[in-house]
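Predict the assembly for these four chains.
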Amino acid sequence: MGNGASVVEKTARLSIAVIGAGYWGPNLARNFRTGPAWHLAAICDLDIDRARRVADSVGGVPVTDDLHDVLSDPLIDAVAIATPARTHHAIVMAALEAGKHVIVEKPLADSGVAGREMVERAGEMGLVLMADHTYCYTPAVLKIRELIADGFLGDILFVDSVRINLGLIQPDVDVFWDLAPHDLSIMDFVLPGGLRTTSVAAHGADPLRTGKACIGYLAMPLAGGAVAHVHANWLSPTKIRQMVIGGTKRTLVWDDLNPQQRLSVYDRGVDIEQVSKGSAADARAAHISYRLGDTWSPALPEGEALAGVAAEFAAAIREGRSARTGGEAGLRVLAVLEAANRSLERGGAPEPLEPLEPLAVELVSGGVVR
Amino acid sequence: MGNGASVVEKTARLSIAVIGAGYWGPNLARNFRTGPAWHLAAICDLDIDRARRVADSVGGVPVTDDLHDVLSDPLIDAVAIATPARTHHAIVMAALEAGKHVIVEKPLADSGVAGREMVERAGEMGLVLMADHTYCYTPAVLKIRELIADGFLGDILFVDSVRINLGLIQPDVDVFWDLAPHDLSIMDFVLPGGLRTTSVAAHGADPLRTGKACIGYLAMPLAGGAVAHVHANWLSPTKIRQMVIGGTKRTLVWDDLNPQQRLSVYDRGVDIEQVSKGSAADARAAHISYRLGDTWSPALPEGEALAGVAAEFAAAIREGRSARTGGEAGLRVLAVLEAANRSLERGGAPEPLEPLEPLAVELVSGGVVR
Amino acid sequence: MGNGASVVEKTARLSIAVIGAGYWGPNLARNFRTGPAWHLAAICDLDIDRARRVADSVGGVPVTDDLHDVLSDPLIDAVAIATPARTHHAIVMAALEAGKHVIVEKPLADSGVAGREMVERAGEMGLVLMADHTYCYTPAVLKIRELIADGFLGDILFVDSVRINLGLIQPDVDVFWDLAPHDLSIMDFVLPGGLRTTSVAAHGADPLRTGKACIGYLAMPLAGGAVAHVHANWLSPTKIRQMVIGGTKRTLVWDDLNPQQRLSVYDRGVDIEQVSKGSAADARAAHISYRLGDTWSPALPEGEALAGVAAEFAAAIREGRSARTGGEAGLRVLAVLEAANRSLERGGAPEPLEPLEPLAVELVSGGVVR
Amino acid sequence: MGNGASVVEKTARLSIAVIGAGYWGPNLARNFRTGPAWHLAAICDLDIDRARRVADSVGGVPVTDDLHDVLSDPLIDAVAIATPARTHHAIVMAALEAGKHVIVEKPLADSGVAGREMVERAGEMGLVLMADHTYCYTPAVLKIRELIADGFLGDILFVDSVRINLGLIQPDVDVFWDLAPHDLSIMDFVLPGGLRTTSVAAHGADPLRTGKACIGYLAMPLAGGAVAHVHANWLSPTKIRQMVIGGTKRTLVWDDLNPQQRLSVYDRGVDIEQVSKGSAADARAAHISYRLGDTWSPALPEGEALAGVAAEFAAAIREGRSARTGGEAGLRVLAVLEAANRSLERGGAPEPLEPLEPLAVELVSGGVVR
């Protein structure tokens, strides 16, 4: 950028470096390598051999063990960060200072304070800060979001998510921080206005004495008397990935492990005829009716979610707008996780959750022009 | 009866009257009519036509609309009560005063105080007071109890129960009191020592504004860091009846809607080698291992659960012992439900649950001799 | 009928006697007892005690062990026959001679010749002869018939039916005659024009040496290159009741053991663009495309199939028309079963099946007036 | 082998070239590249660019478009052939003449005559000719083979295989040659003594007028009154991969699309007590009993099947023995497919199948010495 040659290139592709070559980095590298909007410019890891292995697996890309090499390269537009959560803040802030757009693996940061600083700095700099909430870009979740946005389910009554299996007990995080970010980021993505709960009650159990919760439940009241709930569990012998979203018009079941019918939309439910006068139980009971209609399972396109992540990141940069899973989405997820921590410390008491304060700086159109 | 012949008969069978001919009464009547230990002596209902219809359906039995007719009949040994919960206390107390053994539909009573009085009175009178926790006598639950008692699952780590479907919104009770008694009575039946939780957190939602919770979650810590959890829901378009019981040795899944494989026992799990010295996370992680063994699904006998209820009631009377789902089991279920009520009123805060005080009077052998 | 008294009665209810009080008779008795179009007049069985038990179970009905009592009663309009297949011909012929409308349990008769004689005699007499193909009156099969008739599936490409479980080995019939009548009568009911196959190849196996086939396969070519196939099996440890009906527009799967989604209609398939000129494989391949559309599961009403059988029998009598599962449907099923027998004797060679000759006598409007 | 240089090499690895870089070649290349017993020496394809792409994908391997380069290289011990079936004979014969061991993709050849010549030539040359029946090396099939060999199922009563989905209509082969080789090679692998049927009846349908069967059924009697059956279908909207193997002791169900429970072994069945005297149906019926025992699902190791193929190929070469899916297994599959063709031509008439004549030349120990 800044010289004639790069202008030509930029009309074609944005240039990105992947920071962190551990578990998730190779997936990012592969998708930025093959995504039509992107040029994968480098892989960066403190362990240069690890960086090299990832670079080889995608057909050969420059490697470095020095973050400065990446941040000081004027030809690099953006960085994708897949390092441990505790390092996100420092790396993201440095990248933003260097004028790079940033996509960062979930969770956005290891604390809400750190995350907020990152989001605000990105806003001030006019840069895109995107949370890599990969699940949101699966065909199933994109469809769910569309159905809800179109009013197909009606008003949301409840969201119940179960994510259980015999999982690896993580050395550094509990089952809430390991699994629930998926459920929370999906809820935030599909619910109109995002996941806006007024409190979080977290119930955890550590019956094997591993030092952290291996079984977890999150209960979160939503507006209008609705509720969201998550069951995350590392100790279940069977694997379940299921979310039920109940609405006044229809109810949707997403069974992610059933490739032949991932989404089912049931035209079944309870209709309450709201009567203005007379609120006695009997009167009310007389106005309850039950629908037992058809079930419909929409066809879903094939497609790797991370390809959608890469495309959205590029589009947000080019269009000078926030990403669909922007930094604020990441903050909302973090806020729930931190409230869950506090609830756990208080024995499961519901922990109030303040709505996020408006951020000082908004992304403005043209902000990507440096 | 009333002559020598009946003495002969009574050595063969116990005589019982069914009180209440509504939804559940016909089932009781049918099973006491056909059960080999019982003679069905009468059906009693304030609505004599309703009583008559039930009597006809089981081949003709005397009917009455006067409870006194039943309680004053010296040939009747026992009564089975299937009237609304709010009437249980008065009828049960009268029956006990009249020297009848009593079986009563769940919930035992509409309050813990009422229930406790009933249990104590039965003890004082040396009479059997049994809770009709029908599910406990299904082949599946009997097998679960046996497997746990034999140590086949090891120590219990968690119990997670889901009981959801598009259910009738009850006019008088919420989803906790309608559905959770099943889960709670089953847990009480299969867990060694019964369901003994130190607190109950209840999260309810009434998004349709029916005036009571239609969606409910119960979180209950168990001894040793374990947890029990119930999800009850009237608004789910799909029906699920599933309980997972995780143990240190094996984990059991009961899927009541899969008649071809109701019980599955998984030899899968996490093994933690407890090391006395060195509790650092790394050291601990080094001693975690995962088992991925076989799955086993025991064959279950056929059999209607209520037939088992009738048999157990007769056996308890004859043997002068408490029933396996005795009044105390009913009290433990009531205690959880009442704590759930209090938790709901406090916005989901965990509500402490005192262990039931020892009851003053114990059933003694010979108590059945009148 | 034919006299004033019966006219009065007919406006109210038709009168029927059930012949045979074994396995199926009680079901018939119950449904004719409760069906609004019927008056259950008598139960007839050679074993008068068995008749009496059935009569008691439906609230008391006259019984007899003499068929003549029934056939000579001028107030009885119709008989429902649930005796062994080998007795059908004699009883049905006698009933028709006596001017009774007849419904007869499947199979219609124990031979095509016998069945044909019955059908022709009913036609000559202007009486309804209905085959009790019960499955055809389930909500699922009625819906399938409707969908096909409406062209929703397009032209039928294949019908594949699997009916397997650990079944009782019957003393007198093989697995084809025990199970396949269900599949064949359903196919006959839902396929436009009935089940019209030009040949039947039957492959049976008797690996336990019971003296008859316990495992059976039927392959039946249909018009236009389509095929129907049945797999019937008494030795399967798992129970499957599934029929797939493939069409040019959509394909339907009926899974009778999945009460939550019995019918699924898939908008998936292969489209062949028919090109008039150029039939080379390459050219053809270029015109194949694949549809991967939505899945739809229609809601089905509740309802016992036999109630529908009773209603249809009454309607056919009143309207002077053939029943929807009339004698000819029974003959088509018999013709396939007899061809299967011949194929088995010839080691599985396909056995040609002539189209049924037109019957000499047609039911005419008004034929029911005697 | 037999000279100094190769002795050194052979203690380390066998050297192999992959011929054919189309659909299956990359999988072979990857597994021979990573398999510990193998050195991947070259990729050969007439389309050198295609060869190069495969070579790149496995980290760089010499490529050639000239088969002679491979066959004349004295350092290459073996070739893996993944070219169209019609070319197998010529390439395999040339490779054998050049002293190479050969593994060839299914089907072994495009005719039984061609296949037999290949097998005989390999025998004469003392070389291993292996059929790449990949499915046989999946953990599930290896377990099935072991269970049957250990007598766990008892005598085999039936094998029923269903392999249906919305499949690509192949330009050159029908559904029998496309899908059934999987079922047939698996049956051949797990049945003691291989798949030895005395006849094949094939029923095909081409309702879309594609010019070849898109729906197919194969019925094959086995010894002792047992039967094997295959249902292959390109037009099913749902995907099923299920094989049921019934035995006198137990019955096994393999559901390949259920990763949580691929294998289920049912201790359910029918027991016939064989009575020497008195063969009347009634007497026999009196000696039928039903078992309804437990279900057991063995844990299966993870592992890619092709890695097992590569290991078996190496072991057969080193040990101078036939491979477990050797050329003769390929011939038995071919024989069934050819008989199916003849049956189809004759309208589904069962086509007798002669047992394969003993082959003139047997692999002898030491035969691998060149």
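The radius of gyration of chain D is 22 Å. Chain D has two domains: 4-133+306-327+336-352, 136-303.
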